[in-house]
């Protein structure tokens, strides 16, 4: 597993905790390590670790999308699945797009306790919205 997703679909409650992904090589995929939650859901996704991962020409190497919507038209929702305590450790490689790290978190329920430790993804920048990020070791790209 490299993607935790579809949490909170159709305004549902979701509770995910204690996930550890250790060791993977991802080549020319759309998503690398991903957490996806729908707008309007509730619950928590917490205590998650992605470590010792290599990305090769991946479109979204590191991504949290807490505002996901697959409908034609989406309005901003009042609730969200809270994302807490996610660690990205020893992740390196290349991005196939201009954005290597994307944290698109909810304004009302921002992502908290996100740690980037020894992350080096070449070829893109970081886009970080409504997120609390702590860098440890060498991190590139960094959230502005």
How would you summarize what this structure contains?
This protein has 144 residues and is mainly beta.
Helix content: under 10%
Mean pLDDT across all residues, rounded?
Answer: 94
Low-confidence stretches: none
Which geometry do the CA atoms define?
Answer: globular
Strand content: over 45%
Q: From the helix content, strand content and strand pairing, which structural class follows?
A: mainly beta
- In total, the number of strands is 10
State the distance separating the first and last CA atoms: 29 Å
Whole-number radius of gyration? 14 Å
What order do the SSEs take from the amino end to the carboxyl end, as H and E? EEEEEEEEEE
Largest sheet: 5 strands, parallel
Oligomer: single chain
Number of helical elements: 0
Give, in spatial order, the strands making up the sheet with the most strands: 1-3-5-7-9
